[in-house]
């Protein structure tokens, strides 16, 4: 096993030129320094010093090991420095969100995280639910905020909110907009989110539980594309009521009420249980406080 004491001995021999001087620097004996080097050579599997040369001259592999050892010693010093540090060192947060979050509370979340952790390095990713989930499981992301479409003992889930969705379309496409059954709705072209999107998967399962299929169906994983198609009158889509209320007020969209109404979509913050930390728990709690799906681009 390679230890920091062995690497420390190697470093000071290289700096001071002899085992004797390294021993004096480390307040130990020359025999103790020699023992550390022998143990380090045994653990690494190659000689560190060229015994054919006078003085303590490193071999080529010895130089490579020294460079790596200096990184480890440097990390040790940084850890020890935390005790007296006035500011926390920079840390990285790799997080993923879906389109709806990016369109609503993401700006305020980023601003708040930067205020609380001035040294933080943020790596945001926007994508479909299944893609973000795969990246979380592969340890490519630390935390994601997505529609809650699965449960997993290996994933910690923190409920954020529920998003109310309603059927919307261009004015004039549907003559009777009050109290349509799902069977009556199915006579029209239906615009749905694709199977990789959490909301699409959530409603696909709900439609199936209601025994409903839509013969005229167009799918897209892009929320903005579905919105544009609905405004254009291509079909009827389920969309978050509060977020797109301005388009209703402007007369570009109308709400179609149905029996039964669409259930709300639950959203959660998720992170791997084996990567759980106080920091990620605080970030998830911050998302709970900040998440607001009622308005666009909240600052």
Structure description:
The protein has 299 residues and is of the alpha/beta class. It has 3 domains: 4-84, Arc Repressor Mutant, subunit A, CATH 1.10.10.10; 92-162 and 266-290, 3-Layer(aba) Sandwich (D-Maltodextrin-Binding Protein, domain 2); 165-263, Periplasmic binding protein-like II (D-Maltodextrin-Binding Protein, domain 2), CATH 3.40.190.10. The chain has helices at residues 4-16, 19-25, 30-44, 60-81, 99-103, 106-116, 129-137, 182-185, 198-209, 223-231, 245-249, 278-290, and strands at 92-97, 121-126, 143-147, 155-163, 165-169, 180-181, 190-193, 217-220, 236-240, 254-256, 258-259, 265-272. It has a 5-stranded mixed beta sheet with strand order 2-1-3-12-4, sandwiched between helices. A 5-stranded mixed beta sheet has the order 8-7-9-5-10.
Provide tags for this entry.
D-Maltodextrin-Binding Protein, domain 2; 299 residues; 3 domains; 5-stranded mixed β-sheet; 12 strands; single chain; alpha/beta; Arc Repressor Mutant, subunit A
Chain-wise SSE layout:
Layout: H1 4-16, H2 19-25, H3 30-44, H4 60-81, E1 92-97, H5 99-103, H6 106-116, E2 121-126, H7 129-137, E3 143-147, E4 155-163, E5 165-169, E6 180-181, H8 182-185, E7 190-193, H9 198-209, E8 217-220, H10 223-231, E9 236-240, H11 245-249, E10 254-256, E11 258-259, E12 265-272, H12 278-290
Parallel strand pairs: 1-2, 1-3, 6-11, 7-8, 7-9
Antiparallel strand pairs: 3-12, 4-12, 5-9, 5-10
Helix pairs in contact: 1-2, 1-3, 1-4, 2-3
InterPro entries: LysR_HTH_N, LysR_subst-bd, WH-like_DNA-bd_sf, WH_DNA-bd_sf
Domain HTH lysR-type: 2-59
Protein name: LysR family transcriptional regulator
């Amino acid at each position: 096993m390679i230890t920091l004491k062995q690497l420390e001995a190697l470093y000071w021999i290289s700096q001071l030129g002899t085992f004797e001087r390294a021993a004096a620097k480390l307040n130990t004996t020359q025999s103790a320094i020699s023992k550390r080097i022998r143990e380090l050579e045994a653990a690494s599997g190659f000689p560190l010093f060229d015994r054919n040369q006078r003085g303590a001259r490193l071999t080529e592999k010895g130089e490579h090991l020294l460079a790596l050892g200096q990184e480890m010693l440097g990390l040790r010093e940084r850890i020890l420095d935390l005790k007296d540090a006035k500011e926390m060192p920079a840390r990285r947060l790799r997080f993923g969100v879906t389109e709806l979050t990016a369109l609503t509370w993401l700006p305020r979340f980023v601003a708040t995280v930067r205020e609380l952790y001035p040294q933080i390095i943020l790596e945001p990713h926007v994508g479909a639910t299944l893609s973000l989930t795969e990246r979380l499981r592969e340890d490519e992301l630390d935390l994601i905020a997505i529609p809650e479409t699965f449960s997993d003992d290996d994933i910690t889930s923190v409920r954020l909110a529920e998003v109310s969705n309603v059927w919307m379309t261009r004015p004039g496409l549907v003559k009777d907009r009050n109290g349509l059954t799902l069977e009556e709705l199915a006579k029209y072209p239906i615009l749905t989110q694709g199977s990789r999107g959490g909301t699409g998967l959530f409603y696909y399962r709900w439609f199936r539980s209601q025994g409903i299929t839509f013969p005229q169906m167009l799918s897209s994983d892009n929320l903005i594309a579905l919105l544009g198609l609905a405004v254009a009158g291509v079909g009827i889509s389920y969309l978050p009521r509060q977020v797109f209320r301005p388009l209703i007020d402007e007369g570009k969209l109308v709400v179609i009420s149905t029996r039964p109404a669409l259930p709300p979509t639950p959203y959660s913050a998720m992170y791997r249980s084996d990567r759980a930390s106080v920091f990620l728990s605080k970030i998830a709690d911050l998302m709970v406080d900040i998440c607001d799906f009622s308005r666009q681009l909240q600052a």
